[in-house]
């Protein structure tokens, strides 16, 4: 059957459903991420190969273009996909919890400068904008995520905020009132870099750091967890549970080094 050879073979999604999160057989292939996020060809490709959805997540008020079982590439051979692994095409449980928290607690973001690091589909940056942040930067190393965030801003009738598709973990730090990260603790080396970078943010600028994460392996033993304090926990909707190997909850954590 077509589906047994299709989308479910994609490393990242297979890894989620099997519990071995993010063990892509492609690894990280920067050369696959061609084009810029202003590229009209990329825009047309994303519009054709994603579906607008607002149901099945913790934030039905945010509309997003995502890969769903109604999309050709959900079932198609992974090597026919012309870009890098589309992490941006999933609305991850950590991002869902974080976005819900920002929407329900606008005082946390109102009038503040907010960096959404590892923005993916851009939902958390969008939630920050909806809750009145004064300045937003959505950052993701994947240029295709940049295009997805642009499309998702338009979809929600928001004025576009800046999007940066560079690895800022190696750059000099800017001052932010709030840094938010959804589902970024999935890789030991990345968790190490983030841990050091976030500590510096807090100690240098007094930045508040909120992390959305369901607390699953493989990084659940990472030292950053000793400095995370739970501020909210949400029961995940059925559709998200099904896509995430039966995971039932996701939480928001305050980073206090
Ligand atoms: C699991 S996805 C989470 C996306 C989104 N925050 C959410 O919760 O739906 C992780 C995202 O982090 C991005 N990423 C990985 N390393 C990064 C880095 N060093 N800087 C910025 N983004 C990064 C990936 O491209 C991917 O879009």
Automatic annotation (TrEMBL):
CDD domains (alphabetical): AdoMet_MTases
- What are the record keywords, sorted? Cytoplasm, Methyltransferase, Mitochondrion, Transferase, Transit peptide
The answer to whether the entry has keyword Nuclease is no
What GO molecular function annotations does the UniProt record carry, in alphabetical order?
Answer: protein-lysine N-methyltransferase activity
GO CC list = mitochondrial matrix
This protein's major location comes to cytoplasm
Catalytic activity of the protein: L-lysyl-[protein] + 3 S-adenosyl-L-methionine = N(6),N(6),N(6)-trimethyl-L-lysyl-[protein] + 3 S-adenosyl-L-homocysteine + 3 H(+)
**One record GO biological process:** negative regulation of fatty acid beta-oxidation using acyl-CoA dehydrogenase
Report the subcellular localization: Cytoplasm; Mitochondrion matrix
The answer on whether this UniProt entry bears the keyword Protein biosynthesis reads no
Protein family (similarity comment): Belongs to the methyltransferase superfamily. ETFBKMT family.
PANTHER family noted in UniProt: ELECTRON TRANSFER FLAVOPROTEIN BETA SUBUNIT LYSINE METHYLTRANSFERASE
On assembly, the entry states: Interacts with HSPD1; this protein may possibly be a methylation substrate.
Protein name, please? Electron transfer flavoprotein beta subunit lysine methyltransferase
Q: Coding gene?
A: Etfbkmt
């Amino acid at each position: 059957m077509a589906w047994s050879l299709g989308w479910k073979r994609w490393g990242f999604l297979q890894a989620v459903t099997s519990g071995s999160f993010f063990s892509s057989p492609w690894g990280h292939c920067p050369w696959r991420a061609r084009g810029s996020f202003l590229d009209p060809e990329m825009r047309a490709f994303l519009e054709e190969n994603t579906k607008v959805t607002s149901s099945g997540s913790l934030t039905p008020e945010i509309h997003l273009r995502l890969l769903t079982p109604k999309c050709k590439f959900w079932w198609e051979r992974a090597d026919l996909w012309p870009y890098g692994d589309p992490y941006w095409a999933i609305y991850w449980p950590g991002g869902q919890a974080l976005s819900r928290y920002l929407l329900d607690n606008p005082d946390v973001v109102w009038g503040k400068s907010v960096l959404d690091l590892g923005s993916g589909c851009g939902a958390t940056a969008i939630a920050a904008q909806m809750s009145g942040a004064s300045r937003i930067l959505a950052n993701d190393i994947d240029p295709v995520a940049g295009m997805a965030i642009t499309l998702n801003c338009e979809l929600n009738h928001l004025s576009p905020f800046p999007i940066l598709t560079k690895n800022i973990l190696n750059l000099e730090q800017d001052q932010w009132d709030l840094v938010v990260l959804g589902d970024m603790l999935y890789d030991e080396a990345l968790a190490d870099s983030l841990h050091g970078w976030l500590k510096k943010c807090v100690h240098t600028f007094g930045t508040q750091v909120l992390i959305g994460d369901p607390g699953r392996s493989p990084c659940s033993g990472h030292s950053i967890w000793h400095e995370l304090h739970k501020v909210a926990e949400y029961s995940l909707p059925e559709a998200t549970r099904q896509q995430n190997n039966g995971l039932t909850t996701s939480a928001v954590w305050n980073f206090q080094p």
